[in-house]
Amino acid sequence: MGLHSYDPTGARPGLFWWTRIPDESVTVHLGAGEAVMDLRNVTLFDWSTVPNSLNPAHPLGFASATMDLKIEWSGVKRRVHVSDSANGFAGDFLETSTAIVTATARTPSQHYELRTNPASTVTHFAEVGHDHNGSFFPGE
Amino acid sequence: MRHAHRHVMSRRNFFAKAAGATAAALTSNLWMPSLAYADAPGTGIPNPIPHVTPGPFGPLHFFFPGPADASSSTSPNAGHDPSIITDFNGFVGVADVAGTAVGRNTQTGVVVADNYTTDSRFMIGEFVDTAGRNQHGAFAFI
Lengths: 140, 142
What we know:
heterodimer; A: mainly beta; globular; B: mainly beta; four-stranded antiparallel β-sheet; 1 helix
């Protein structure tokens, strides 16, 4: 069924792989180290591979796609307070033990659908936090 | 979200393997995301964080996932600020995960076992847009 790689924008100067989402799609309970991002029918593209997304020529082409994506963060492992003047950000961050992904991605033109198995999720790194950066960086 | 039948290549692995590859200038021939939720006036479009991580086709404004208190000397491009947008005050979430999946041909009904990896994030809160206007919004990095 080939290679599939989904993101909203491909590579571009400045922001990349981003999209605006409804405010109500995100719920955060920072004190508990819990959050949910629940996106439905997000419009994006299937670039086949990461290199093809990043390559401005997109030699492998691309196809319109949609995705439902739900991620649930929970289980506080570590709390970190950071004030980093070198990188211009500060905040309180809670690393979590899990970020469970439930996703369905569809590439209609290729008659392809991918469904993740949430129970199989392996969390390499996950965190939720309150972040102040740039002009909101409070300084030392 | 990355998915590859029989072979998984995460973004981090790809960048590691692509390090040293010939760089080329990025062009702006792509698409603007929907601004259906943008506040007016202003553009509703945030600016990227200043940090750039080298990419195979040009610099990319983000840090790989990792601890926010990572050392700049030993981990210059991983950890630190999880947000991809600057002039931002709000909540963030980062999920660097992998797992199994099922791929299905919707025409034939054939299914195959697969794998996926993803570095997905959210940012929700106030930000200053490219026109210098204060805005409120939510964004996903997928």
